[in-house]
Amino acid sequence: MGVTQHDVIIIGAGVAGLTAGTLLAERGLDVALVAKGEPTACLSTGCVDICSLDHEPLHGISHLPEEHPYHLVSRGVIREALIRFQIIMEEMMLPYSGSLENNRLVLSALGTYKTTCLAPVTMAAAPQNDDDDLHIITFTGLKDFYPSYIIARRKNSSFSAYNAGVSTTMGLAANFEREDFLDSFILWLEKTKIRESKIALPAVLGLESAAAIVKIIEERVGKKVFEIPTIPPSMPGRRLFNALKDYFRKKGGTIYWSWPVSGVEKTKNIIEAVITPSEGRPNSLNAKAFILASGSFVGGGLHARRDTIVENIFNLPVFNPGKRDDWFDSDYFSLNHTIGKAGIIADSSFRPKDAPWENIFVCGGILAHTEVLKNGCGHGLALATGHAAAVSCIGYLK
Amino acid sequence: MIKTDVIIIGGGATGCGIARDLALRGIPHCLIEKGDFAAGATGACHGLLHSGGRYVVSDPVAAKECYEENIILRKIGEKCVEQTGGLFVRLPGDSKLYRDRFLKSCDKLGIPTEIISSTKALDLVPNLNPEIEEAVKVPDCSIDPFRLCMLNIVSSQKRDGIIFIRHKVTEIIKEHGRCVGVKAADQVSGELREIRGNVIINATGAWSHLVARLAGDEVPLTLSKGSLVITNHRLTNMVINRMRPSADGDIIVPNEAVCLAGTTSMAVEDPDKIRIESQEVDTIISEAGRMLPHFNDMRVIRAFSGVRPLLKSAKSDSREISRGFQIIDHGDGLFSIVGGKLTTFRLMAEKMVDTVMEHFKLNKPCETAQLPLEGQEELSGYPLAKRLANMKNIICECELVSRAEVERIIAQTGTRYVGDISHRTRLGMGPCQGGFCTFRALGIMQEKSIISPAQSMFALRDFLQRRFRGIRYCLWGDQLREEQLVEYIYLGILAMERK
Q1: How many CB pairs under 8 A join A and B?
Q2: Cα dihedral B439/B441/B446/B447 (nearest 10)
Q3: What pTM does this model have?
Q4: Which of A68, B13, B18, B478 is the most exposed place for a label (fewest CB within 10 A)?
Q5: Cα distance from A139 to chain B (closest Cα, Å)?
Q6: How remote is the C-alpha of B242 from its chain's centroid?
Q7: ipTM of the complex
Q8: How far is A117 from chain B (nearest CA, A)?
């Protein structure tokens, strides 16, 4: 068996895991991240929702039930985590716009509004009400974007279709990274006599350089340009992940990519190592502390059986909101599916409650009582708890 | 106002079969269906073309009818019946006495059987429980109920039959004590149509007592709920039955890429108020798992219930009620046809149309047992070879349905319903149950100006609610994972309004 030693090992490469990882790396710790695949962040809109229950997101947190994990993090730390995130994204050329004092709106591909707090700068010009007139650009054959959904809800809006020769989100995004492609696209835009004051596009403007591409188009066409998030594969989500991942590596972090954790070595009160299968022989990844950020069901941190819910790696005790029949409300749209409460209950030091090990910390979507959709706290909660769990871990290692 | 000779209410297998029979005998007719074809018991069954084996012990008359119809359908529907063959497997503890009675009765009714050893059975179906004592081979087949309805309708449409789907009969018009027509409301526009005819046939299955009441008539009916689950893999290439008296979860039927297992049997009152319960799902899985052990850890992609319209009987256990059928002449120009099975739909239609011919004093014999079903070439499904041939612009990743195929169906049928595309291509029938592709299919319909964005938003909401009803009781494991993703897409990324 191959044995590798680190200070801290983080399981999961989503926003929570990477937030914890970057913080630990910045503090000079030897930190490694084990990921079995792409995180659910890649499926997301890339927006950071903090709490949609109130116009002021930080105030909205006070409306949350007392068991919500946000309450484990002080307002000051939440703020610190979010500001740190903005600084990192600025450095990674993918700035986020928005203020921690007010929520803002992002236009969806159905023409509705999604409430968020921090949005990638490529969505900064998204209308905040129904008045703005938009010209929507679509791409011939693109299967995940239909401008008529939006036009039906907005008067003074129209659309044009650009035939790019490719028709997938990823294919278009890759092409936009090419200067000649971008140039022909802009020439076409200039020829299309656009009356409206803003131009909206599905989020395909580049794999990584979207912020720069939006700026170039705006300068040359002389109109505000913004992206509309699409269903997965979602470029803004992917860009967010890539930026955090690159920053983590830049700070000296190690990533074990595509390595699922298959076993754990532990004593009565210490986790010693996680085992991952790899080519030929298994690897033992040893560390002084572990941070579990493996996500909820979609991310693969939790698994629902017919009669119970389990945590996949350490078999930590899981809060199960009830019998299977009660996991879902009969109304699909109610957002009251109690399954959203399932997860690991953490104590104030972000250690899992009722688990015997002192060197494991949990954060992000795997936590219990998050109800991310209902409370509108996707990524915001991951940033806050990832940050706080890392701080707690540093305290333990001292 | 539309005038015709025979009005058929109900677009299940029976109603569609009657339309074909009338068409072949040259009788003008009009079929009215409140939802889509096969929306009732027809579409909520296993899709099993019975060999009769299931009923040989309890109901030999129904068993004989099943076998005779099985032979006819295999002949006239060569391309839409999958001749899988079936096994009755006897597990340790299952009565040998029942097996003896089963074989004796099959013999008497002329249903061919072959006793095979457990080793041989495992050769045929490697996923079988290796502990089975033995198996009996019977000529069970698999059939797609929706496609069967469509194929019957083709014959009607070719001979000027008038078909209204998504039209609900709201009134049976009576004049001088005779039923002379119906009023039917378009379920989309609300527009009311009047259709006049000399004879009205009530082929509405579990709803037939309600329809008969519109004419002041009664239909004695016992309703029995049966539930089924669908797995995302085809675990067997043969129909698997349990060698024991009918009980919960004793039939598994392969259909295209999936397997259906069921059923349960519970008396119900209202055909519109049924729902499956988790306990039924668990029972079906564990019973099916006794025959095919993999069933226990298979991903279940859908669980649903249908209502069997059974003839009223004094028997309290609905499993003991005859699967035979009955034609009721209400004496006022209305006829009801109730009971029966999917397998015997053609025979039911034949007898019904014979009655109508007698009523009209005409005598053209029935030809539905001799002439092959028309339209089998284009309606023989959308085989994998065809899917793999065109992998460009896939709209439904689960079932590999391309944009070109979706556009072709829209152009061909002018449909405003995603369901019509699904039934023809399997769009949305895979593991994500339409989570991704319905949004796209509706978007393409908008591009083609078939529906407005407002209509498609309505359709999308309606689809998501209905889809959820189908998967609500099988949400665990990977299916729950997929569901959480789909919920995130619609309520998170696409920010669909809650109301």
Answers
A1: 124
A2: 120
A3: 0.90
A4: B478
A5: 13
A6: 22
A7: 0.96
A8: 14
